[in-house]
Design brief:
The complex is a heterodimer of chains A (about 280) and B (about 260). In chain A, strands 6-7-8-3-9-10 form a 6-stranded mixed sheet, with helices on both faces. In chain A, strands 2-1-4-5 form a 4-stranded antiparallel sheet, covered by helices on one side. Chain A starts with a strand and ends with a helix. Chain A folds into 2 domains: about 230 residues, Rossmann fold, CATH 3.40.50.300; about 40 residues, no CATH class. Chain A contains 11 helices and 10 strands. In chain A, helix 3 runs parallel beside helix 5. By secondary structure, chain B is mainly α. A two-stranded antiparallel sheet of chain B has the order 1-2. In chain B, a hairpin with a 2-residue loop joins strand 1 and strand 2. Chain B is flat and about 70 Å long. Classes of the chains: A alpha/beta (about 280), B mainly alpha (about 260). Chain B: This is Energy-coupling factor transporter transmembrane protein EcfT. Chain B: It holds the Pfam family CbiQ. Chain B: Belongs to the energy-coupling factor EcfT family.
Chain lengths: ~280, ~260
């Protein structure tokens, strides 16, 4: 992971017309190339507004956003949208085409890509999300997870440098969720893609490189998953649920069972427990 | 139930009619609608019938699908026929029972007009049975393209049509879900007098409308995020290809029109 900032937010504030409070207030942070950044927060913490601002669907009233050195404004918005792809929450409401291949082609058509190039990109991106055998399938015959993978294919066909998952797994069953996250993880590995996942699922966030906690429109805390989960009760107060393995390690420690550290995944915790007797 | 109404239309098969360019099919239908009116005697009508049945057999669509498609309009055809039979008062009387008379011209008109009607419906069903809705949309967009010059929003219209087509099954599924939810809350959709049943539709329609508007808004955002900014500078993924068979079929129809002109009285 290089430490080159790809996206920079400087003192960004945003307020919806009809609301008194700021949806975002004086938020500044950087997103580095090739990292997986999770933005977590309770409903109304401003995390979804953040996604809209990054994609130029809304503009900040104060402060600036720069993407790859380019200031995000009405003039640069289309260029920015090509660089930052977005996958939304509802699998159905972002499926534009009548079939899988039409949907993947939609973004390419919008950007005026030549047809020969388009066919190649549709096929290769569907291959990458393992949906190539569903080329002519209609959306109502696909599961939620499959639809989200098609949405991802539609995004990567445009070869963006950043992909934003805006609660993209929250409407899926556990299997669909794992499918989608696995797909994104592979893409990140193989294409050095930068991933921003906006979520309230801390289990998902636990696998990120870095977490940003939002609360009431402000950046509340920033750190690695290990650092963030040290907050324990504080997270619960913010309306977030601590992942089970983290909770478990804490309870075990309280019972006097010494563990080497806080564990973020169930496998790690189990491995520590069943080997603990020998390691003593 | 509703599934069959719309999706039962297209019958996949490998026939020459299926493989025709949707543009040539649309043009043929348009032309056919015009030339049906040239026919005015038994010989010309016989020719039209032969042509239509040739098309039906070329399409390789099983007969029961065609019958199923014709059923709802058959009453209309019958009604037109009877109307002409009873109301035309020209030519010799060929049947009389008290005040009730049927004239020769009435019988002639009745048969011809209902035949015309029948053939038109048959031909349009062949179009919808052999062409997917999205192909029809693509064909229309391409045919209407020249209207762009007079600022007619062809691309927008085609996009609207294709999005509607894409969302029909989604909304059907949703209707089904809401129906079940409301049934669980005691709404009765299937029995009772018509008035009660109409009232029962309201708790179905309102949630459906609310969610559709929400869908529309989210879809618009998603489209914008994927770089949609109207038809300008857009390329097309789907491509239509006009082949020899399209020209041939169209010429066949022109030939039919010429023959009809020669044979009419």
């Amino acid at each position: 992971m290089s430490m080159k900032p790809l996206v920079q937010l400087n003192n960004v504030s945003f307020q919806y017309d009809i609301q008194e409070n700021y949806a975002l207030q004086d938020v500044s942070f950087e997103i580095y190339e090739g990292e997986w950044l999770a933005i977590v927060g309770h409903n109304g913490s401003g995390k979804s507004t953040l996604a809209k601002l990054l994609n130029g669907l809304q503009y900040p009233q104060e402060g600036t956003i720069t993407v790859d050195g380019m200031l995000l404004s009405e003039e640069t918005v289309w260029e920015t949208r090509r660089m930052i792809g977005m996958v939304f929450q509802n699998p159905d409401n972002q499926f534009v085409g009548t079939t899988v291949q039409d949907d993947v082609a939609f973004g390419l058509e919008n950007n005026g890509i030549a047809r020969d190039d388009m066919i190649e990109r549709v096929n290769s991106s569907l291959n990458k999300v393992k949906m190539a055998q569903f080329l002519d399938q209609e959306p109502h015959h696909l599961s939620g997870g499959q639809k989200q993978r098609v949405a991802i294919a539609g995004v990567i066909a445009l070869r963006p440098s950043v992909i934003i998952l805006d609660e993209a797994t929250s409407m899926l069953d556990p299997r669909g969720r794992e499918e989608v996250l696995e797909t994104v993880r592979e893409l990140k590995e193989t294409h050095n893609m930068t991933v921003i996942s906006i979520t309230h699922d801390l289990e998902e966030a636990a696998k990120a490189d870095r977490i940003i906690v939002m609360n009431k429109g402000k950046l509340y805390r920033e750190g690695t998953p290990e650092e963030i989960f040290q907050m324990d009760e504080e997270l619960v107060k913010l309306g977030l649920d601590i992942p089970f393995p983290v909770k478990m390690s804490k309870l075990l420690k309280e019972q006097g069972i010494s563990l080497s550290r806080h564990f973020l995944s169930e496998e790690e915790l189990v491995a520590e427990l069943w080997t603990s007797y020998y390691n003593k | 139930m509703m599934d069959k109404m719309i999706f039962g239309r297209y019958v996949p098969a490998q026939s020459i009619i299926h493989r025709l360019d949707p543009r040539s099919k649309l043009l043929m239908i348009f032309l056919f609608v015009c030339i049906v009116f040239i026919a005015n005697n038994p010989a010309t009508y016989a020719l039209l019938v032969v042509y239509t049945f040739l098309m039906v057999s070329l399409s390789k669509v099983p007969f029961r699908f065609i019958i199923a498609g014709l059923k709802p309009v058959l009453w209309l055809v019958l009604f037109t026929m009877l109307l002409h039979l009873f109301l035309t008062k020209e030519g010799e009387i060929i049947f009389q029972a008290g005040w009730f008379k049927i004239y020769e011209e009435g019988l002639r008109q009745g048969i011809f007009i209902s035949m015309r009607f029948f053939l038109l419906i048959l031909m349009t069903s062949i179009l919808t049975l052999t062409t997917t809705p999205i192909e029809i949309t693509d064909g229309l967009e391409s045919l209407l393209h020249p209207l762009n010059k007079v600022k007619f929003p062809v691309h927008e219209l085609a996009l609207m049509m294709s999005i509607s087509l894409r969302f029909i099954p989604t909304l059907m599924q949703e209707t089904d879900k809401i129906m079940k939810a409301q049934t669980a809350r005691g709404v009765d959709f299937t029995s009772g007098p018509i008035k009660e049943r109409m009232k029962a539709i309201i708790p179905l329609l309102i949630p459906l409308f609310v969610s559709s508007f929400k869908r529309a808004e989210e879809l618009a955002t998603a489209m914008e995020a994927r770089g949609y900014r109207g038809g300008e500078g857009r390329t097309k993924y789907r491509q239509l290809s006009w082949g020899f068979k399209d020209t041939f079929m169209l010429l066949l129809l022109v030939l039919l029109a010429l023959l009809l002109f020669l044979l009419r009285t």
